[in-house]
Design goal:
It contains five helices and no strands. The chain is an all-alpha fold.
Length: about 150
C-alpha cells in the first residue's frame, strides 16, 4: 500500500505542470494586449476565461489521457471557481496591498493557486475508478513465483 507520495502519480504532476506552463503563456498572451485596453482586473478575467478552454482540452487529452465529455467540460469551469478565487485574491493582494506591478502580479498569483488547481482538475477529469497507472505505458506483467513450464 502506497503512502501519500504514491497517491498522485509523478507523470500526472509533470504533465499537469507542462500544461500549466502552456496555459499560463496562453493566459499571459491574452492578458497583456487586453491590459492596454481594459483595467487590469477586467483584462485578467478575460484572459482567464480564454485560457480555461485550452486548459480543459490539454488536461483531458495530455495530463489525464481521457476523453473530453460535455459533462467534464461543464464541470471543469465550476471547479475552476476555486482556482479563480485563489488567483483573484492573490492578484488583488499583490497589486493593492503589496504594491506589485499589475503586469507581473498574475504570474505570481498563478503560482499560489497551482496546488489547488491540480487537485481539483484531477478530481473532475480523471475517470472514476480508473487506476493511476500511466496510460501510455502498458502495465508490467505479473511476477510469477517458481519455474515456468
Amino acid at each position: 500500500m502506497g503512502g501519500p507520495a504514491a497517491a498522485v502519480p509523478w507523470w500526472q504532476v509533470v504533465r499537469f505542470t507542462a500544461v500549466g506552463v502552456v496555459n499560463t503563456a496562453t493566459f499571459y498572451a491574452c492578458y497583456l494586449p487586453l491590459h492596454r485596453l481594459l483595467p487590469y482586473f477586467a483584462a485578467y478575467t478575460a484572459g482567464f476565461v480564454l485560457s480555461l478552454v485550452g486548459s480543459f482540452f490539454l488536461n483531458t487529452y495530455f495530463t489525464y489521457r481521457t476523453r473530453p465529455t460535455w459533462r467534464k467540460f461543464l464541470l471543469f469551469p465550476l471547479t475552476q471557481v476555486t482556482n479563480y478565487a485563489v488567483q483573484s485574491a492573490g492578484l488583488v493582494a499583490l497589486v493593492s496591498w503589496l504594491g506589485m506591478d499589475s503586469v507581473a502580479a498574475p504570474l505570481a498569483a498563478a503560482l499560489l493557486a497551482l496546488p489547488v488547481t491540480f487537485l481539483v482538475s484531477r478530481r473532475i477529469l480523471r475517470p472514476p475508478g480508473r487506476p493511476d497507472a500511466a496510460p501510455d505505458r502498458p502495465e508490467p506483467p505479473p511476477v510469477r513465483s517458481g519455474r515456468s513450464a
